[in-house]
Design a protein that fits this description.
Blueprint: H1 2-25, H2 29-36, H3 51-57, H4 60-80, H5 83-87, H6 93-112, H7 125-135, H8 137-154, H9 157-172, H10 182-197, H11 200-208, H12 218-234
Helix pairs in contact: 1-4, 1-6, 2-3, 2-4, 3-4, 4-6, 4-7, 6-7, 7-8, 8-9, 9-10
Length: 235
């Protein structure tokens, strides 16, 4: 009986960990922050619940808060993958690493497809960054640094996010992670590609020259608003 109980526990704990990670990742922090300020971010700006739209439509400090909380989702997701190792003594290290990556992925998917919002969520970049900090910190740091440089130079959040995904994918196949299992690099590369895929509409707008730049100054905001007005007039 003890052996049967242990087998059931061994089977259920990973599933429970994945469920917890997904449900936590699905919490729409951006939407909640906007609601607290009397703004439904699903009806303004890009109509996205992510940190960028919160930043633009609710305010800088609230956008930063949304970014941090969405990133925490990914970190907490990877920590959920440690639950079986904490409760069952003889879980192999590679199994724990796999579960941490899968639970981080569940948190990212929760953010992108939240059950609380009929599976219509954000693009997953912030949560993916938290996942990376949890299981592949060097890839996370280099990807974030690349995002920052590209964003400052171009002022395109979407372009910075897509190229950061490319950086992460490249780092995963570099000597930095040469000692890790093959599945590890494959899974995280797939997640980077998923983040890029979620920006496919932004990529189309970038190619057409209609993607809006982020505005740091009043002059840039005026130019952005004028461009938007011109685009609306031409429709």
């Amino acid at each position: 009986m003890e052996q049967i109980g242990f087998s059931i526990t061994t089977l259920l704990l990973p599933l429970v960990s994945l469920a917890i990670a997904y449900l936590f990742g699905a919490i729409p922090f951006g939407l909640l922050i906007g609601k607290a300020r009397g703004i439904d971010v699903r009806t303004v700006g890009s109509q996205n619940i992510g940190a960028t739209n919160v930043f633009r439509c609710v305010g800088a400090k609230y956008g930063i808060l949304a970014f941090v909380l969405d990133m925490v989702k990914g970190v907490v997701g990877t920590l959920c993958g440690c639950l079986p190792a904490l409760l069952v003594a003889d879980v192999p290290d590679n199994t724990t690493l796999l579960l941490r990556v899968l639970c981080g992925t569940a948190a990212m998917l929760g953010h992108i497809f939240p059950v609380y919002l009929k599976f219509k969520g954000g693009k997953g970049v912030s949560t993916a960054l938290g996942l990376l900090f949890g299981v592949a910190p060097w890839a996370g740091l280099l990807g974030f640094a690349g995002w920052g440089v590209i964003f400052v130079l171009s002022r395109y959040v979407s372009l910075a996010s897509c190229l950061a995904g490319c950086i992460v994918g490249g780092v995963m196949w570099s000597p930095i992670y040469a000692d890790k299992p093959l599945w590890y690099s494959i899974l995280i590369t797939i997640l980077a590609l998923l983040a890029i895929f979620k920006h496919r509409q932004n990529i189309v707008r970038l190619c057409k020259g209609t993607e809006n730049r982020f505005a740091f100054t009043a002059k840039q905001r005026a130019a952005r608003d004028a461009k938007r007005a011109q685009q609306e007039a031409s429709k």
